[in-house]
Every structure is written in structure tokens, then in C-alpha cells.
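pasting for ref
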Amino acid sequence: MPTRVPPTAAQVAQAVVPTPASSDALICVPGQTMIVTGVAPPRAPLLLLFGTRVVGGGSATASGDFALPLTFGVERAGVHTITVQVRGARQVVQTLTCEMPPTTPTPVVRRTR
């Protein structure tokens, strides 16, 4: 049986066409959905993490393939890590870097004199 090769970052972002950033990170736009695909152990339960926060999950098929949707909310601008790991075993099966561009200025509370 041939060894499966994990997909590249360009193959992972199917719903959003990634624009390479200076750091080769995917560009993640608030309100957009990206499908994170890859290969995991067959029928493995999976968790999808944005940074350290669990934002979704699912399971791999009998052949080990998975496709997990990730919809971006309003997040801080900067570089974030997207990770897919096996639930319970915490085995990492996919890691991506996502750059959240600045959208609008963050409101700042100013004191009046």
C-alpha cells in the first residue's frame, strides 16, 4: 500500500483562494470559510484548533481523509496557527499558518478631561 503524502498548504484552502503573504502564511479573511483537508489515521476523531482554541472537529474517513470547515470570525490581526489533532491522543496531523490582515481600526476608549 503506498504511503499517503499530506497535502500542501495550497491544496488545503479550497473555499478561500490563499494569497501568499510575506511569511508564506495563508490569508484568512473574517467571514470567509476555508476547508482544511488532509490525512489522519483511519476513522480518527479530530479537533480543529485556531491558536489554542478548539473551533471545530470531525472525523477521518475509513481511508484516513478528512475535510473540516473553518469559518473565520473577527480575530486580532497577525499570524495565527491552525492545527488539526487527533482527539484524546493529541497527535498533530496538520498544521497551517494563517495571517489575519487588519480590517478596521480597533476602537480605543479615550478618557475625557
